[in-house]
Protein backbone atom coordinates (compact mmCIF):
# COMPACT_ATOMS: atom_id res chain seq x y z
CA UNK A 1 0.00 0.00 0.00
CA UNK A 2 2.95 2.30 0.72
CA UNK A 3 3.63 3.32 -2.86
CA UNK A 4 0.65 1.68 -4.57
CA UNK A 5 -1.30 4.96 -4.81
CA UNK A 6 1.68 6.74 -6.39
CA UNK A 7 2.24 3.87 -8.81
CA UNK A 8 -1.42 4.03 -9.88
CA UNK A 9 -1.00 7.77 -10.58
CA UNK A 10 2.12 7.00 -12.65
CA UNK A 11 0.22 4.25 -14.52
CA UNK A 12 -2.68 6.58 -15.36
CA UNK A 13 -0.25 9.23 -16.60
CA UNK A 14 1.69 6.78 -18.77
CA UNK A 15 -1.51 5.27 -20.16
CA UNK A 16 -2.70 8.76 -21.12
CA UNK A 17 0.66 9.54 -22.76
CA UNK A 18 0.53 6.27 -24.73
CA UNK A 19 -2.97 7.16 -25.95
CA UNK A 20 -1.81 10.64 -26.95
CA UNK A 21 1.17 9.34 -28.91
CA UNK A 22 -0.73 6.64 -30.80
CA UNK A 23 -4.00 8.51 -31.31
CA UNK A 24 -5.49 8.57 -34.82
CA UNK A 25 -8.12 11.16 -33.97
CA UNK A 26 -7.57 14.57 -32.37
CA UNK A 27 -10.80 14.31 -30.31
CA UNK A 28 -9.54 11.03 -28.88
CA UNK A 29 -6.21 12.73 -28.15
CA UNK A 30 -7.96 15.46 -26.15
CA UNK A 31 -9.76 12.73 -24.16
CA UNK A 32 -6.40 11.08 -23.45
CA UNK A 33 -5.01 14.41 -22.28
CA UNK A 34 -7.82 14.67 -19.73
CA UNK A 35 -6.85 11.17 -18.52
CA UNK A 36 -3.26 12.44 -18.07
CA UNK A 37 -4.65 15.37 -16.12
CA UNK A 38 -6.57 13.16 -13.72
CA UNK A 39 -3.30 11.39 -12.87
CA UNK A 40 -2.04 14.63 -11.30
CA UNK A 41 -5.13 14.85 -9.08
CA UNK A 42 -4.64 11.27 -7.89
CA UNK A 43 -0.97 11.98 -7.11
CA UNK A 44 -1.70 15.25 -5.26
CA UNK A 45 -4.47 13.80 -3.12
CA UNK A 46 -2.41 10.68 -2.38
CA UNK A 47 0.45 12.87 -1.12
CA UNK A 48 -1.96 14.79 1.12
CA UNK A 49 -3.65 11.73 2.65
CA UNK A 50 -3.18 11.02 6.35
CA UNK A 51 -4.13 7.73 8.03
CA UNK A 52 -7.28 7.88 10.15
CA UNK A 53 -7.87 11.52 9.28
CA UNK A 54 -11.06 13.17 8.10
CA UNK A 55 -11.87 15.95 5.62
CA UNK A 56 -10.59 19.44 6.62
CA UNK A 57 -14.10 20.88 7.04
CA UNK A 58 -14.93 22.11 10.54
CA UNK A 59 -18.64 22.91 10.20
CA UNK A 60 -19.55 19.74 12.11
CA UNK A 61 -16.20 18.89 13.65
CA UNK A 62 -14.59 20.29 16.79
CA UNK A 63 -11.21 21.77 15.73
CA UNK A 64 -8.45 19.54 17.02
CA UNK A 65 -10.80 16.64 17.79
CA UNK A 66 -9.51 14.52 14.91
CA UNK A 67 -6.54 14.79 12.56
CA UNK A 68 -7.44 16.16 9.12
CA UNK A 69 -5.91 15.49 5.70
CA UNK A 70 -3.80 18.14 3.95
CA UNK A 71 -6.12 20.90 2.63
CA UNK A 72 -3.47 22.62 0.49
CA UNK A 73 -3.17 19.86 -2.11
CA UNK A 74 -6.95 19.58 -2.22
CA UNK A 75 -7.27 23.29 -3.01
CA UNK A 76 -4.71 22.88 -5.79
CA UNK A 77 -6.54 19.92 -7.32
CA UNK A 78 -9.97 21.52 -6.95
CA UNK A 79 -9.26 24.67 -8.93
CA UNK A 80 -7.44 22.71 -11.61
CA UNK A 81 -10.36 20.34 -12.19
CA UNK A 82 -12.59 23.22 -13.30
CA UNK A 83 -9.94 25.31 -15.06
CA UNK A 84 -8.66 22.17 -16.82
CA UNK A 85 -12.14 21.57 -18.24
CA UNK A 86 -12.20 25.01 -19.86
CA UNK A 87 -8.75 24.41 -21.32
CA UNK A 88 -10.07 21.11 -22.72
CA UNK A 89 -12.87 23.16 -24.29
CA UNK A 90 -10.29 25.46 -25.89
CA UNK A 91 -8.46 22.45 -27.35
CA UNK A 92 -11.75 21.08 -28.70
CA UNK A 93 -12.47 24.47 -30.29
CA UNK A 94 -9.09 24.19 -32.02
CA UNK A 95 -10.03 20.69 -33.21
CA UNK A 96 -13.27 22.07 -34.71
CA UNK A 97 -11.21 24.71 -36.53
CA UNK A 98 -8.74 22.10 -37.82
CA UNK A 99 -11.59 20.00 -39.15
CA UNK A 100 -13.07 23.05 -40.89
CA UNK A 101 -9.79 24.07 -42.51
CA UNK A 102 -8.45 20.65 -43.49
CA UNK A 103 -11.49 18.39 -43.48
CA UNK A 104 -9.83 15.77 -41.29
CA UNK A 105 -8.96 15.25 -37.62
CA UNK A 106 -6.41 12.47 -38.16
CA UNK A 107 -2.96 13.78 -37.12
CA UNK A 108 -1.21 11.58 -39.71
CA UNK A 109 -3.30 12.91 -42.59
CA UNK A 110 -2.75 16.44 -41.31
CA UNK A 111 1.04 16.11 -41.40
CA UNK A 112 0.80 14.66 -44.93
CA UNK A 113 -1.22 17.70 -45.97
CA UNK A 114 1.47 20.01 -44.68
CA UNK A 115 4.40 18.06 -46.16
CA UNK B 1 -10.45 -0.91 6.33
CA UNK B 2 -9.76 2.55 4.92
CA UNK B 3 -6.79 1.21 3.03
CA UNK B 4 -8.83 -1.58 1.47
CA UNK B 5 -11.45 0.91 0.26
CA UNK B 6 -8.76 3.19 -1.16
CA UNK B 7 -7.00 0.28 -2.86
CA UNK B 8 -10.26 -0.89 -4.49
CA UNK B 9 -11.02 2.65 -5.68
CA UNK B 10 -7.47 3.02 -7.03
CA UNK B 11 -7.72 -0.25 -8.98
CA UNK B 12 -11.08 0.82 -10.44
CA UNK B 13 -9.68 4.20 -11.49
CA UNK B 14 -6.59 2.62 -13.08
CA UNK B 15 -8.84 0.18 -14.99
CA UNK B 16 -11.16 3.00 -16.05
CA UNK B 17 -8.26 5.11 -17.32
CA UNK B 18 -6.85 2.17 -19.29
CA UNK B 19 -10.22 1.46 -20.92
CA UNK B 20 -10.68 5.19 -21.69
CA UNK B 21 -7.34 5.29 -23.52
CA UNK B 22 -7.94 1.99 -25.33
CA UNK B 23 -11.37 3.10 -26.61
CA UNK B 24 -10.49 4.54 -30.00
CA UNK B 25 -13.92 5.82 -31.03
CA UNK B 26 -14.25 9.32 -29.51
CA UNK B 27 -18.02 9.06 -28.98
CA UNK B 28 -17.60 5.86 -26.97
CA UNK B 29 -14.53 7.27 -25.25
CA UNK B 30 -16.51 10.23 -23.93
CA UNK B 31 -18.93 7.80 -22.25
CA UNK B 32 -16.01 5.88 -20.71
CA UNK B 33 -14.58 9.22 -19.53
CA UNK B 34 -17.91 9.98 -17.82
CA UNK B 35 -17.65 6.66 -15.95
CA UNK B 36 -14.00 7.45 -15.13
CA UNK B 37 -15.15 10.82 -13.75
CA UNK B 38 -17.55 9.07 -11.36
CA UNK B 39 -14.85 6.56 -10.32
CA UNK B 40 -12.41 9.42 -9.64
CA UNK B 41 -15.09 11.16 -7.57
CA UNK B 42 -15.47 7.97 -5.50
CA UNK B 43 -11.68 7.74 -5.04
CA UNK B 44 -11.47 11.39 -3.95
CA UNK B 45 -14.29 10.82 -1.45
CA UNK B 46 -12.49 7.89 0.20
CA UNK B 47 -9.31 10.00 0.20
CA UNK B 48 -11.28 12.49 2.36
CA UNK B 49 -11.45 15.19 -0.31
CA UNK B 50 -15.19 15.93 -0.71
CA UNK B 51 -14.54 19.32 -2.34
CA UNK B 52 -12.47 17.82 -5.13
CA UNK B 53 -14.94 14.94 -5.48
CA UNK B 54 -17.81 17.37 -6.03
CA UNK B 55 -15.78 19.29 -8.56
CA UNK B 56 -14.78 16.11 -10.39
CA UNK B 57 -18.36 14.81 -10.38
CA UNK B 58 -19.70 17.99 -11.98
CA UNK B 59 -16.90 18.41 -14.50
CA UNK B 60 -15.74 14.87 -15.23
CA UNK B 61 -19.10 13.16 -15.52
CA UNK B 62 -21.10 15.93 -17.21
CA UNK B 63 -19.17 18.82 -18.71
CA UNK B 64 -16.15 17.21 -20.39
CA UNK B 65 -18.08 14.29 -21.99
CA UNK B 66 -20.73 16.74 -23.21
CA UNK B 67 -18.12 18.97 -24.85
CA UNK B 68 -16.45 15.93 -26.43
CA UNK B 69 -19.78 14.63 -27.77
CA UNK B 70 -20.70 18.03 -29.23
CA UNK B 71 -17.31 18.20 -30.98
CA UNK B 72 -17.77 14.67 -32.35
CA UNK B 73 -21.18 15.66 -33.67
CA UNK B 74 -19.83 18.78 -35.35
CA UNK B 75 -16.87 16.98 -36.97
CA UNK B 76 -18.96 13.97 -38.07
CA UNK B 77 -21.68 16.14 -39.55
CA UNK B 78 -19.07 17.88 -41.67
CA UNK B 79 -17.71 14.52 -42.81
CA UNK B 80 -21.20 13.34 -43.80
CA UNK B 81 -21.96 16.49 -45.76
CA UNK B 82 -18.75 16.18 -47.69
CA UNK B 83 -19.61 12.55 -48.41
CA UNK B 84 -22.99 13.67 -49.80
CA UNK B 85 -21.43 16.30 -52.04
CA UNK B 86 -19.14 13.87 -53.77
CA UNK C 1 8.47 10.24 -39.50
CA UNK C 2 7.41 6.71 -40.35
CA UNK C 3 5.01 4.96 -37.96
CA UNK C 4 7.73 2.41 -37.14
CA UNK C 5 10.28 4.95 -35.92
CA UNK C 6 7.55 6.71 -34.00
CA UNK C 7 6.50 3.51 -32.27
CA UNK C 8 10.15 2.95 -31.28
CA UNK C 9 10.47 6.50 -30.02
CA UNK C 10 7.30 6.17 -27.94
CA UNK C 11 8.50 2.83 -26.53
CA UNK C 12 11.96 4.17 -25.59
CA UNK C 13 10.71 7.48 -24.21
CA UNK C 14 7.78 5.84 -22.42
CA UNK C 15 9.90 3.20 -20.69
CA UNK C 16 12.45 5.83 -19.66
CA UNK C 17 9.68 8.01 -18.23
CA UNK C 18 8.12 4.97 -16.51
CA UNK C 19 11.45 4.08 -14.86
CA UNK C 20 11.93 7.65 -13.62
CA UNK C 21 8.34 7.87 -12.33
CA UNK C 22 8.61 4.57 -10.43
CA UNK C 23 11.92 5.67 -8.91
CA UNK C 24 10.27 8.95 -7.89
CA UNK C 25 7.34 7.07 -6.31
CA UNK C 26 9.74 5.38 -3.88
CA UNK C 27 11.23 8.76 -2.96
CA UNK C 28 7.89 10.39 -2.08
CA UNK C 29 6.75 10.80 1.54
CA UNK C 30 5.02 7.66 2.81
CA UNK C 31 1.35 7.30 1.86
CA UNK C 32 -0.88 8.21 4.83
CA UNK C 33 2.07 9.66 6.76
CA UNK C 34 1.58 12.09 9.61
CA UNK C 35 3.87 14.91 8.48
CA UNK C 36 1.95 17.64 6.64
CA UNK C 37 3.55 20.91 7.79
CA UNK C 38 1.79 23.11 5.22
CA UNK C 39 -1.58 21.45 5.82
CA UNK C 40 -1.36 21.98 9.59
CA UNK C 41 -0.47 25.65 9.16
CA UNK C 42 -3.26 26.15 6.61
CA UNK C 43 -5.78 24.71 9.10
CA UNK C 44 -4.54 27.06 11.82
CA UNK C 45 -4.71 30.09 9.54
CA UNK C 46 -8.20 29.11 8.39
CA UNK C 47 -9.50 28.78 11.95
CA UNK C 48 -7.91 32.12 12.84
CA UNK C 49 -10.01 33.74 10.10
CA UNK C 50 -13.09 31.78 11.24
CA UNK C 51 -13.54 29.91 7.97
CA UNK C 52 -15.00 26.45 8.61
CA UNK C 53 -14.05 24.95 5.23
CA UNK C 54 -10.26 25.03 5.17
CA UNK C 55 -10.15 24.44 1.41
CA UNK C 56 -12.23 27.58 0.77
CA UNK C 57 -9.87 29.46 3.06
CA UNK C 58 -6.82 28.21 1.15
CA UNK C 59 -8.40 29.12 -2.20
CA UNK C 60 -9.94 32.49 -1.41
CA UNK C 61 -7.83 33.77 1.48
CA UNK C 62 -4.37 32.28 1.88
CA UNK C 63 -3.78 31.64 -1.81
CA UNK C 64 -6.27 34.13 -3.25
CA UNK C 65 -3.64 35.49 -5.63
CA UNK C 66 -3.10 32.01 -7.06
CA UNK C 67 -6.86 31.70 -7.63
CA UNK C 68 -6.74 35.00 -9.52
CA UNK C 69 -4.22 33.33 -11.84
CA UNK C 70 -6.56 30.35 -12.30
CA UNK C 71 -9.44 32.70 -13.06
CA UNK C 72 -7.33 34.43 -15.69
CA UNK C 73 -6.61 31.09 -17.37
CA UNK C 74 -10.32 30.29 -17.28
CA UNK C 75 -11.23 33.68 -18.72
CA UNK C 76 -8.61 33.45 -21.46
CA UNK C 77 -9.72 29.92 -22.39
CA UNK C 78 -13.34 31.02 -22.70
CA UNK C 79 -12.30 34.06 -24.73
CA UNK C 80 -10.28 31.80 -27.04
CA UNK C 81 -13.27 29.49 -27.53
CA UNK C 82 -15.58 32.39 -28.32
CA UNK C 83 -13.16 33.70 -30.93
CA UNK C 84 -12.44 30.28 -32.48
CA UNK C 85 -16.07 29.16 -32.62
CA UNK C 86 -17.63 32.32 -33.99
CA UNK C 87 -19.75 32.18 -37.13
CA UNK C 88 -17.52 32.89 -40.11
CA UNK C 89 -18.51 34.53 -43.37
CA UNK C 90 -18.87 31.30 -45.33
CA UNK C 91 -21.25 29.77 -42.79
CA UNK C 92 -24.95 30.19 -42.26
CA UNK C 93 -27.37 29.28 -39.53
CA UNK C 94 -29.88 26.52 -40.08
CA UNK C 95 -32.75 26.80 -37.64
CA UNK C 96 -33.21 23.41 -36.02
CA UNK C 97 -36.75 22.11 -36.18
CA UNK C 98 -38.51 21.66 -32.84
CA UNK C 99 -38.11 18.01 -31.96
CA UNK C 100 -40.59 15.76 -30.20
CA UNK C 101 -39.39 14.80 -26.74
CA UNK C 102 -40.59 11.66 -24.99
CA UNK C 103 -43.00 12.71 -22.24
CA UNK C 104 -41.12 10.81 -19.47
CA UNK C 105 -37.83 12.49 -20.47
CA UNK C 106 -39.52 15.88 -20.58
CA UNK C 107 -41.21 15.40 -17.21
CA UNK C 108 -38.03 14.16 -15.55
CA UNK C 109 -35.82 16.92 -17.00
CA UNK C 110 -38.23 19.69 -16.06
CA UNK C 111 -38.64 18.20 -12.57
CA UNK C 112 -34.90 17.90 -11.96
CA UNK C 113 -33.95 21.28 -13.46
CA UNK C 114 -35.04 23.52 -10.55
CA UNK C 115 -33.64 21.05 -8.02
CA UNK C 116 -30.26 20.95 -9.79
CA UNK C 117 -30.18 24.74 -10.21
CA UNK C 118 -30.98 25.26 -6.54
CA UNK C 119 -28.34 22.70 -5.54
CA UNK C 120 -25.76 24.59 -7.56
CA UNK C 121 -26.65 27.91 -5.94
CA UNK C 122 -26.68 26.28 -2.48
CA UNK C 123 -23.23 24.80 -3.09
CA UNK C 124 -21.90 28.25 -4.09
CA UNK C 125 -23.50 30.00 -1.12
CA UNK C 126 -22.18 27.53 1.47
CA UNK C 127 -18.67 27.38 0.03
CA UNK C 128 -16.96 28.62 3.17
CA UNK C 129 -18.91 26.25 5.47
CA UNK C 130 -19.35 22.88 3.80
CA UNK C 131 -17.61 21.07 0.95
CA UNK C 132 -18.30 23.03 -2.23
CA UNK C 133 -17.84 26.58 -3.37
CA UNK C 134 -17.81 28.76 -6.44
CA UNK C 135 -15.94 26.35 -8.69
CA UNK C 136 -18.21 23.35 -8.12
CA UNK C 137 -21.50 25.17 -7.65
CA UNK C 138 -20.94 27.26 -10.77
CA UNK C 139 -20.51 24.16 -12.93
CA UNK C 140 -23.58 22.47 -11.37
CA UNK C 141 -25.83 25.51 -11.86
CA UNK C 142 -24.67 26.08 -15.44
CA UNK C 143 -25.08 22.46 -16.53
CA UNK C 144 -28.47 22.33 -14.78
CA UNK C 145 -29.70 25.06 -17.12
CA UNK C 146 -28.98 22.76 -20.07
CA UNK C 147 -31.48 20.19 -18.84
CA UNK C 148 -33.92 22.50 -20.63
CA UNK C 149 -32.34 21.36 -23.91
CA UNK C 150 -33.15 17.77 -23.00
CA UNK C 151 -36.61 18.51 -21.65
CA UNK C 152 -37.88 21.07 -24.12
CA UNK C 153 -35.85 22.04 -27.18
CA UNK C 154 -33.04 24.23 -28.39
CA UNK C 155 -35.23 27.29 -28.90
CA UNK C 156 -36.54 27.19 -25.34
CA UNK C 157 -32.95 27.07 -24.13
CA UNK C 158 -32.02 30.05 -26.29
CA UNK C 159 -34.86 32.08 -24.83
CA UNK C 160 -33.70 31.71 -21.22
CA UNK C 161 -30.06 32.06 -22.19
CA UNK C 162 -29.10 35.34 -23.82
CA UNK C 163 -25.43 34.51 -24.38
CA UNK C 164 -24.37 38.15 -24.53
CA UNK C 165 -25.59 38.69 -21.01
CA UNK C 166 -23.55 35.73 -19.74
CA UNK C 167 -20.44 37.00 -21.52
CA UNK C 168 -20.88 40.32 -19.72
CA UNK C 169 -21.48 38.43 -16.46
CA UNK C 170 -18.23 36.53 -16.94
CA UNK C 171 -16.25 39.76 -17.30
CA UNK C 172 -18.09 41.45 -14.40
CA UNK C 173 -17.27 38.50 -12.11
CA UNK C 174 -13.53 38.68 -12.89
CA UNK C 175 -13.62 42.43 -12.31
CA UNK C 176 -15.44 41.91 -9.00
CA UNK C 177 -12.64 39.60 -7.89
CA UNK C 178 -10.04 42.20 -8.87
CA UNK C 179 -11.97 45.05 -7.22
CA UNK C 180 -12.15 43.09 -3.95
CA UNK C 181 -8.39 42.69 -4.15
CA UNK C 182 -7.82 46.37 -4.86
CA UNK C 183 -10.20 47.32 -2.02
CA UNK C 184 -7.85 45.53 0.37
CA UNK C 185 -4.99 47.61 -1.06
CA UNK C 186 -6.98 50.82 -0.46
CA UNK C 187 -7.61 49.64 3.09
CA UNK C 188 -3.87 49.68 3.66
CA UNK C 189 -3.22 45.92 3.44
CA UNK C 190 -1.72 43.67 0.76
CA UNK C 191 -3.53 42.91 -2.52
CA UNK C 192 -6.37 40.42 -1.83
CA UNK C 193 -5.56 40.33 1.90
CA UNK C 194 -8.53 39.27 4.01
CA UNK C 195 -8.64 42.36 6.24
CA UNK C 196 -11.52 44.26 4.73
CA UNK C 197 -14.50 42.77 6.54
CA UNK C 198 -14.96 41.48 10.09
CA UNK C 199 -14.34 37.75 10.24
CA UNK C 200 -17.77 37.16 11.80
CA UNK C 201 -19.05 34.24 13.83
CA UNK C 202 -17.50 30.86 13.11
CA UNK C 203 -19.71 28.54 11.03
CA UNK C 204 -22.26 31.11 9.83
CA UNK C 205 -22.94 32.26 6.27
CA UNK C 206 -21.26 35.64 6.83
CA UNK C 207 -18.09 34.25 8.41
CA UNK C 208 -14.66 34.40 6.84
CA UNK C 209 -14.35 38.07 5.87
CA UNK C 210 -13.92 38.44 2.10
CA UNK C 211 -14.00 34.66 1.49
CA UNK C 212 -17.77 34.59 0.70
CA UNK C 213 -17.40 37.58 -1.64
CA UNK C 214 -14.55 36.08 -3.63
CA UNK C 215 -16.35 32.74 -3.57
CA UNK C 216 -19.49 34.32 -5.04
CA UNK C 217 -17.45 36.10 -7.73
CA UNK C 218 -15.82 32.79 -8.70
CA UNK C 219 -19.22 31.05 -8.71
CA UNK C 220 -20.60 33.67 -11.09
CA UNK C 221 -17.55 33.56 -13.32
CA UNK C 222 -17.53 29.76 -13.58
CA UNK C 223 -21.29 29.54 -14.18
CA UNK C 224 -21.18 32.21 -16.91
CA UNK C 225 -18.08 30.65 -18.45
CA UNK C 226 -19.66 27.20 -18.68
CA UNK C 227 -22.90 28.60 -20.13
CA UNK C 228 -20.96 30.56 -22.77
CA UNK C 229 -18.77 27.56 -23.63
CA UNK C 230 -21.69 25.16 -23.99
CA UNK C 231 -23.63 27.78 -26.00
CA UNK C 232 -20.76 28.10 -28.49
CA UNK C 233 -20.34 24.35 -28.84
CA UNK C 234 -24.11 23.78 -29.18
CA UNK C 235 -24.21 26.52 -31.83
CA UNK C 236 -21.50 24.77 -33.81
CA UNK C 237 -22.97 21.30 -33.39
CA UNK C 238 -26.63 22.13 -33.96
CA UNK C 239 -27.04 25.37 -35.87
CA UNK C 240 -24.06 26.59 -37.86
CA UNK C 241 -23.54 24.98 -41.26
CA UNK C 242 -21.11 25.79 -44.01
CA UNK C 243 -22.38 27.09 -47.32
CA UNK C 244 -22.57 24.06 -49.57
CA UNK C 245 -20.46 24.07 -52.70
CA UNK C 246 -17.85 26.54 -51.44
Automatic annotation (TrEMBL), chain C:
Pfam families to which the protein is assigned, alphabetical: MnhB
Membrane-topology descriptor: Multi-pass membrane protein
PROSITE patterns: PROKAR_LIPOPROTEIN (PS51257)
Domain spans labelled Na+/H+ antiporter MnhB subunit-related protein: 106-227
Transmembrane regions: 68-87, 108-127, 133-150, 171-193, 213-234
Membrane recorded as keyword: yes
Keywords: Cell membrane, Membrane, Transmembrane, Transmembrane helix
Gene Ontology CC: one annotated term: plasma membrane
Organism superkingdom: Bacteria
Cellular location(s): Cell membrane
Family indicated by similarity: Belongs to the CPA3 antiporters (TC 2.A.63) subunit B family.
PANTHER family hit by this protein: NA(+)/H(+) ANTIPORTER SUBUNIT B (PTHR33932), NA(+)_H(+) ANTIPORTER SUBUNIT B (PTHR33932:SF4)
Designated name of the protein: Na+/H+ antiporter MnhB subunit-related protein domain-containing protein
UniProt organism field: Streptomyces viridochromogenes (strain DSM 40736 / JCM 4977 / BCRC 1201 / Tue 494)
Amino acid sequence: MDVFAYLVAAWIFLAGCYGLATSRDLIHAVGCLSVCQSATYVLLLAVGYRDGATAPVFSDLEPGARPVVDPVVQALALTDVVVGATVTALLLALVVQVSKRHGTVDPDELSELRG
Amino acid sequence: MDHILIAVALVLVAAGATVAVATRDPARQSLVLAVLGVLLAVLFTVLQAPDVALSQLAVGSALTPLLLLLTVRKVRRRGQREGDDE
Amino acid sequence: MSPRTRAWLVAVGGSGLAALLVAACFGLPEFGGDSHPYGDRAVEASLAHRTANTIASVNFDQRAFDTLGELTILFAAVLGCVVLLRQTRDEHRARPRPAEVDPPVRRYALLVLPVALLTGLYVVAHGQLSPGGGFQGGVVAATALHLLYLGADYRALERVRPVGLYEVGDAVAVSAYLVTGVAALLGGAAFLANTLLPHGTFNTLSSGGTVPLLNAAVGMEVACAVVVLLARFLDQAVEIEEESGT
